[in-house]
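Deliverable D5.2: sample structural annotation.
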Amino acid sequence: GNILFKLNDFDEAIKYYKKIIVLEPFNESSSMNLIEVLNFLGRYDELKKEVNRILKIYPDAPHFKKYLREK
């Protein structure tokens, strides 16, 4: 996913991050990467959905909560 992001292939990067999240739903790094790409693209509805999902797992994670305050 990160390589695809650096190559500006954002849709493919999103697909890979989502695949990792399905396989490893507790993977904070993949969730943060997905959130960052969605934020970069302005896809705020999808971003909020992922933030809310990960906050159910890590409710006290300020690095995720900040995305709900920003948009």
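Annotation notes: The longest helix spans residues 10-23. The mean pLDDT is 91.
The annotation will be released with the project's public dataset once the embargo ends.
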